Amino acid sequence: MAPEDAAEEIAKLYENNRKPDITLECSGAEASVRTGVFATHHGGVLVCIGIGPNDVKVPLVIAGMHEVDIKGIYCYANCYPTAISLIATGKIDAKPLVTHRYKLQEAVKAFETCKNQSDGAIKVMIKCNE
Description:
alpha/beta; two-stranded parallel ribbon; 2 domains; three-stranded parallel β-sheet; single chain; Rossmann fold
């Protein structure tokens, strides 16, 4: 799906189809960053949290015309205790994020799946013991 189309689908999730004022992009994937620009309401902020490749194509003209501010944040500093607590108490269910599971003997295939993001891969797990 094109980023513009994905942004329209996102807008449908909100009251009056109004795009969000603040968009949090957490994957770092180029398609998601591009979608974030189109999905953010005029005058809003796109916060890029995810760490992706060094070079990403961003529709800067659209961001400029829509006055969307793009901000970056290094999200991993000191966040592990909070994340572990949220998962341990059941406030967040992280299980759906693991989309693929492989045995240790299939590690190369697991890394290829992760690299290519094939079959809708989000998080790929390698089980190291039986």
